[in-house]
Amino acid sequence: MENKILNITILLSVIIAVIIIYFFVSIIRYHRRYMKLQRERIFAEITIRENERKRIAADLHDSLGPLLSAVKLNISSVEIPHPDDRLVLEKTGKYLDEIIGSMRRISYDLLPATLERQGLVEAIREFVGQVNLKQTINIQLYVVKDIRVPKEKEIHIFRMIQEIVHNTIKHARAKNLQIGLSEEAGHLLFLSKDDGKGFDTEKELGRSSGLGLKSLQSRCEILSGILSLESKPGTGTNYFIKIPVS
Amino acid sequence: MSNIIRLVIADDHEIFRDGLTLMLSKQDAISLVGQAGDGRELIQLVAEKKPDVVMTDIKMPGMDGIAASKLLLQKQPNLKIIALSMFEEENLIVEMLEAGAKGYLLKNADKKEILEAIHTVYEGNIFYCKHTSARLASLIVKSKFDPQKKKMNALFSDREKEIVRLICRQHTAQEIGERLFLSKRTVEGYRTKILEKMEVKNTAGVVVFALKHDMISEEDLQ
Fold first, then answer.
1. CB B16 to CB A114 under 8 A?
2. What is the pLDDT of residues B31-66, one digit of tens each?
3. Which residues from A are below 8 Å from B23, CB to CB?
4. Residues of CATH 3.30.565.10 domain(s) within chain A?
5. Quick check: ipTM above 0.95?
6. CB-CB neighbors (< 8 A) of B87 in chain A
């Protein structure tokens, strides 16, 4: 009799244990699947956004640009005897130049043409050159080696570097930023170091909209890369990124 | 006026070609002998019409301006080609110059500049668009594009070199005058002389020349 009770107890315990284990395994599986779907969703979102940007940039460049230039040519073809009237048309021509100038900036922000044509390193060089010209920060870029990156990864890496530079200007208020790029054993290596005010990394990563760090992390995950950053309030910030590119 | 310049234009946007045609139709010294919508058409047209000057867009569907220029210049090394660029696409402009173009223009250039470009290349000189940025100037100097042989630096007096540096930093004649205690008119006189010696037409030409001849460094431009 006692034996029977013992057997039933053991049997019941085993059944309960199996149910609990099955339950946990399901949760873990579900969680993994959820994470995977989440990653895919983010990837799809970012890809859609980049494609959309590309399309708008191309439209600005290929449709509106020539149209405005044609308008300007037409205006300058009109012969006007009265000097005051001529002045009005000259002014209108200047306005058109301004419109074309803003379109160029918008188009560049959407997608730099250099990235499409000349690749990542050239686009970064151009970007750094422009920042140095317009902002008070001094960026030094060291490209150690000729780097080859698959076309579909370039835009993400470019955006990550843009984000880091913008963070450094906007939040770190650094005077100097050094960026190193290299390629080793099929991986792109990115290293940056600034002399800005630094920040509490734990706290910022916890915040939902902190510093655009989330977007950096998402892009890095998409590329199956590693992102690490070192920073403390009062000291500068170092970023290190490693992304497989072969 | 000497001969009438025979011109062909190529651009994939008809509206832009129409604008150019309208503007050029009022010029007695220039005769527009044909229009092409892409590189292939351009090559055919040049073979047919034998123009003196070609003005071509860089980005065109099918064969672009760069590929077309290379082919055209193989057959007719003396053809003068001007590149047209929508925005200042520095790398593309450099590729066009390396392919053998003799000048470039932004598409929002005004009438005066377009005509100046056509006449300049027709006379065998190089035309740099007046909107040339510091970055483009230094890219051009570093590129394989090498139109002028290096001229001796010693041709310029110290005063002229000082003025060249200030012109490259985009100072106006007025500002240069104030700095060097000269009248605006004197500075303009110097400027004209400098442009003549360098055989260039505008500030962009001065910047490229000065960079090439080490009269200024890239840091001077920032």
1. no
2. 999 999 999 999 999 999 999 999 999 988 889 999
3. 73-74, 76-77
4. 118-244
5. no
6. 61, 65, 100, 103-104, 107, 113
